[in-house]
Amino acid sequence: MTQRIDKAFIAEENAKLAGFLKEDYEALGNQLARDDINIEDITAKAEQFQIAVPSWGTGTGGTRFARFPGEGEPRNIWEKLEDSAVINDLSQCTERVSPHFPWDKVDDFTELKQTSDSLNLKWDSINSNTFQDQPGQAHSFKYGSLSNTRAESRDLAIQHNLDCIEWGKALGSKTLTVWVGDGSNHPGQQHFQSAFERYLDSMKQIYAGLPSDWELHIEHKMFEPAFYSTIIQDWGSNILAAMELGPQAKSLVDLGHHAPNVNIEMIVSRLIQFKKLGGFHFNDSKYGDDDLDSGSLHPYQQFLIFNELVDAQYRNQEGFGPNYMLDQSHNVTDPIESLMNSAASVQRSYVAALIVDRKKLSGYQQDNDALMASNTLKKAFTTDVSPILEMARFNRGGAIDPIAVYRASGYRAQAGRERPNSGGNGSGIV
Ligand code: PSV
Ligand code: MN
Ligand code: MN
């Protein structure tokens, strides 16, 4: 097993920065105190924040043109867990891993659960995969899975999702996330209503197999792989499906799955209002489903989403408690570094949203003072909350500077030696 990063080593590296952190934390504490914000309260909340890592994100991603494998990539779910443990040891906010079946090949789920326990990791939402055929598959998903015109293909897709629930039970998960690429590439290829009816009928069968304490998350995406129409193309179709299925069905928002310029934070607000916000796949994008690192392009959008989330949290909105997860593809960076950076970026948006002066904001909204309302949000967004994030990690035994500690540890080079024949991320994406 690839050597974990030693706790003593993390402590040694932290000792080099602890003095500076104390100074910066004090300065920020004084600044926040002017607005009656107690920095310790915010840090305590930051320490509670968790965002799941996708198992497939630990391998190098790629595009349909090429993939450039990185050194020492994990070759299987066990090695993906090792890398996930390193991410969590340093970041202290990623204790859950979200698996993708059958990309993650598992014979013995009890053994897998024991391994994750030993690494202090838990399991987040189970992702099913009916968007590609597996070797030897009896009935193809070429023309769709849950909405296929042929019952044999639909039944296979339904059964796979029911299997995912069983595997998830063994791992202690409580959520199934269903994303399908079903759709059409040519006008006229598909009868929109009949296809949606078939999809709903299949989803009802999956919903019927859901344990009472589970949720079923439906993920929408505008296009790709279908380039003319997609069955669950936006949050409208998504919430319709979730409402049709019942209270355990909710919508999942992947930030890269909307039309350009769509107001995602407003979609989030609507879903919250109707108790249908299931969770998130965080990433960033410039053109489409780019799966770039979270907050690397649109940190303000990410903050505005958290502004809605924190607002709902403070209002104790009924039925509110979404799953947070990263869903990214790392083509040119070390996936461990990108995932640590991204988790911290999302956590930063959360913390910045916590320091929004909500009383003032509400007053400005009431008085239609657009400029001051906007400035209230901007003030929180532009406050550098880094010392809070650093202190939260430090207090929990993580790294003040996760990337620096990771690089100094030599973990990647060691993984390269121990995983000589890596070169596949097991995701099937090339
Ligand atoms: C589809 O683009 C998606 O966002 C879904 O969440 C899949 O499970 C994942 O990407 C696969 O990378
Ligand atoms: Mn996604
Ligand atoms: Mn996607």
TrEMBL record:
Keyword Manganese found: yes
SUPFAM superfamilies linked to this entry: Xylose isomerase-like
Keywords: Isomerase, Manganese, Metal-binding
Gene3D superfamilies, per database record: Divalent-metal-dependent TIM barrel enzymes
GO MF terms held by the record: isomerase activity; metal ion binding
Entry keyword Transmembrane helix: no
Protein name as catalogued: L-rhamnose catabolism isomerase
